[in-house]
Write a structure and sequence with these properties.
The chain has about 60 residues and is mainly alpha-helical. It has one domain. The longest helix is centred in the middle third of the chain and has 27 residues. It is rod-shaped, with a radius of gyration of 25 Å. The N and C termini lie far apart (about 80 Å). Keywords: Membrane, Transmembrane, Transmembrane helix.
């Protein structure tokens, strides 16, 4: 059962057409989550504070 390229392309096109709403929604979710992660990462870099250093034990 070997499919040539044109048959494979036609079946893939039908699959995409049948699931267009789900694919668009998934793409929007991916883009929004990627942007929110990137913006959060950039915002955290601006407020980079010095580490806490313990110099003396309290005994």
């Amino acid at each position: 059962m070997s499919m040539n390229f044109s048959e494979y392309r036609a079946r893939a096109g039908e699959w995409v057409s049948a699931r267009k709403k789900e694919l668009v929604l998934g793409g929007i979710i991916f883009i929004v989550s990627s942007l929110s992660f990137g913006l959060g990462y950039l915002a955290n870099r601006e407020f980079n504070r010095a580490p806490i250093v313990i110099e003396k034990c309290s005994q």
